[in-house]
From TrEMBL:
Name recorded for this polypeptide: non-reducing end alpha-L-arabinofuranosidase
A single GO molecular function term of this UniProt record: alpha-L-arabinofuranosidase activity
EC number(s) reported in the record: 3.2.1.55
Keyword Signal: yes
Pfam families the UniProt entry points to: Alpha-L-AF_C, ASD1_dom
Residues of the signal peptide: 1-26
Statement: the UniProt record of this protein carries the keyword Transmembrane helix: no
Lineage: Bacteria, Pseudomonadati, Rhodothermota, Rhodothermia, Rhodothermales
UniProt keyword annotations, A-Z: Carbohydrate metabolism, Glycosidase, Hydrolase, Signal
Source organism per UniProt: Longimonas halophila
Amino acid sequence: MPSRPTLIAGLLLTVGLLLVPAPTAAQNAEIKIDIDRTIGEVDSLIYGNFVEHLGRNVYGGIYDPDSPLSNEQGFREDVIQATRDLNVSLMRYPGGNFVSNYDWEDGVGEERPNRLELAWSRIESNEFGTNEFMEFAEAVDTEPYFAVNLGTGTIEEAQQWVEYTNYEGGTYYSELRKEHGHEEPYDIKYWSLGNEMDGYWQIGHLNAEDYSKKAREAAKMMTRTDPDLSLVAAGASNFRPDADPMHWNRIVLDELKDVVDYIALHIYVGDPNDNYYNFQSTPHVMEERTELVEGLIDIAMQDADREDEIKIAWDEYNVWYRARSGSDMEGETALEERYNLSDALVIAGFLNGFIRQADIVKMANLAQLVNVIGTMFTTPDDMFKQTIYYPIQLYAEHAYGTSLDVHVNSETYDTDEFFIGLGEQQTQQSDVPYLDVSATHQDDGEVIINVVNRHRDEAITTDLISQTGGFEGPFEVYEINGPDVNARNTFEEQPVQTEQLDDVQGGGESFTYTFPPHSVTMLKGRIAQ
Ligand code: AHR
C-alpha cells in the first residue's frame, strides 16, 4: 500500500496534469514542387494598387501641401518612398464609386470648381486631377490605370478624356493638355469602362444589358481615338442574396467579348463575428469566383472574333469590415480601417490565390493605397505601414515567373460559416488547409515558395520535396509574423513586419522547414536544371 506522502504526491501530480494544458503536438506536412507542372506566367500587374478620391487617400494621403513632409508640388515624400518600396506595378484611378459622379474636366487647368461628391458625401475641391495623378504615378514608378465615368458620364466625355491624355496633338483636347503644360501624350493604356455598375449603390447604376450597350459605345469612341487601349469591363460586384452576379457576368461577357481585354471583379472580406479560422478561408471565395467566371469566359470565347482570351482583373480586393457603417463610410475620414496580423495573412492568401490562378488572373489591385482601407496610415507629420503592406511588398519584390501546380499535404479544417463581405452570405467550406502555398519558377532555376501557416497555435514541420531536379540551396528566408494574430502596427510600434532570417541550406531532393504559427514565409532558392 503506498505511503501517505506518496498518495498526496500522486494526487498533486494528477491534479497538476489536469490543470496544466498539454502542449499541442506540432503537425507535419509535405509540399511537393514539380517544375514540369506549370499553371501560367505570373503577370506583374497582379501587384497593382488603387487611389480613389475618397476620405484621406488623395487629400491628406498622397497629396498634402500643408504637411512638412511634402515636396514643392504638395506630394508626401514619405508616401512616395513607401509606395516605391511597395513595387506597385499598376495604379487604378480615380475610383471606385467616386468615378461614377466625376467630371474629369473639373480636375484639369486653372479653374477647379468645388463639387458636391455624392458617392462618399464630401466636397471635392478638384485641386488634384489627371495631371497631378500622372505626376504621382511617375514619381512612384507605376503604370496608370484609369476608370471612366459610365454613371453620370457620357460616352463622349469618356472619349474626350482619352483624347486629352493620349492624342498627340492638333485637336481641342490634345491641345488643351499642351496648354496645361504637358506637351507629350501620356499614352495611358489601361482603362476600365465604369465601376461596379451592377451595384444598386452605384450612381447611375444600370442593368446588364444597358451597361453593356453603353460600355460598347464608349469603347468604340475610345479605341477610335487610341487603338492601343486595353479595356476592362465592369464585372459583377453585387453578391447580396437578391442579386444574380453570374447573370450580369454572362451578359457582359457575351456583349463585350470582342471589345474588352479583361473583366473586373471585386471582393472584400472580413471577420465580423471574430471567427479567425473562417476569416482565414475567405481568399478561397475569390478562387471559387475566379473559376466560375473563367467558365463564363470560356463560353463567350467560343464564338468571339479574337485570338487571345479575355482575362480576369481582381481590380479591387482587400479586408474591409470594421469601417463599414455610419460615419465611417462618409466624409474626410471614411474607411480608415486599422489592420492586424490576421488581415495580413488573408492578404497573403489572396496573393497565393492569384498566383495559383495565374493562367487567367492577369491583374489585381489592392484597394487602396493610403488611409482608406490602406497599406499606409498618415497624419500631417507622420506615417506608418499597416500590416497588410508587408505581404504585398514581399511578393511584388520576388514572386515572378511561371506559377507551379504545387501538391500540398497539410491537415485541414472545416469552417462552420464561410463569411464574405458583410457576412450576409454564408456557406460551409470544408478542407481548408492550414498551409496555404503557392510557388513560382524562373528559367534560370530560381524557385520561390510562399507559405501561409494559418494555424493560430501550432508550428508545422514540413518536408519540401522537389519532384524534378534537386533543390540548390542556400534558400533565402523571409518571414512576416507578430506576437499574435491581433497584433497591429501603430505610429509608436510596428510589431508586424518582414524579417529576413538566416538562410537555410535546403539542397538535394528534399529538406525540412518548420513554419511558425500565424506566419507568412517566403523561401527563395533554386532547382537544378
Ligand atoms: O474601395 C472602396 C469602394 O469599394 C470602391 O469605391 C467601390 O468600387 C467598392 O464598392
